[in-house]
Amino acid sequence: EDKVVQSPLSLVVHEGDTVTLNCSYEVTNFRSLLWYKQEKKAPTFLFMLTSSGIEKKSGRLSSILDKKELFSILNITATQTGDSAIYLCAVEAPASGNTPLVFGKGTRLSVIA
Amino acid sequence: NAGVTQTPKFQVLKTGQSMTLQCAQDMNHEYMSWYRQDPGMGLRLIHYSVGAGITDQGEVPNGYNVSRSTTEDFPLRLLSAAPSQTSVYFCASSPQKREYNEQFFGPGTRLTVL
After folding, report:
1. How far apart are CA A104 and CA A112, in angstroms?
2. Which among B40, B57, B103 has the least Cβ separation from residue A101?
C-alpha cells in the first residue's frame, strides 16, 4: 500500500528560527513529490520535485528530494508568523492502485512572536 | 480565470438527506478530483476523473457518486448523508502534464451532517 509519512505532526517555533519538515514515502511508480501550504482554506502549491539532489528555492523556503532514501525535506529559514500553516507533502504515483496522488497527514507549524 | 470554484461554502444536512457539491474549473484541465479533509487525517481522495466521461474511485468512495459530463464540471453527490461525512471537501484540478502537474484547489465546502 502506498504511503506518505510526514514528521513532525506539529511544531512550535519562535520567529527567526529555522525549521525542517520531513516527508518519507513508499510508493510504486514514483513520478513526483509536491509540497503545499495550507492556511485557513485551500492548499496552495509550493514546490514540485522530480529529481534527486536538486534544490528548489523560493525566498526563505527550500526543498530537496532524495529518491534513493525516499524522502524529501522542506526548510524554512528566518521563520515569520505568516509561515504558520499546515504543510502537506504529496507523492504522485500514477497507476499505483486507485490513488494517483497520495497525501501525508501534514505538519502543523506554529510560529510565535 | 476564476480557477477552481466550489459551491456551497457551507452546508448543514440532516442524516439521510442528499445533496450535490458543485465544482467547476475554467482552465481546461483534464484531471479533476474530490478530497475530504478531516482533523489529523490529511487529504483523502474520494473520486477522480481523468477526462470527460471517465471517473474512478479513490481511497474513500463509499457514500459518494460523481459524474463528468463536461471538462469543466465535476459534481460530488452524497446519496444519503451520514454524520461520518461531516468534513471539509476540496475539489482540485490539474493539467496532468508530465513536466508540470500542480493541483489547483478550490476554496472548500464545509459540510456538517447532524
Report:
1. 24
2. B103
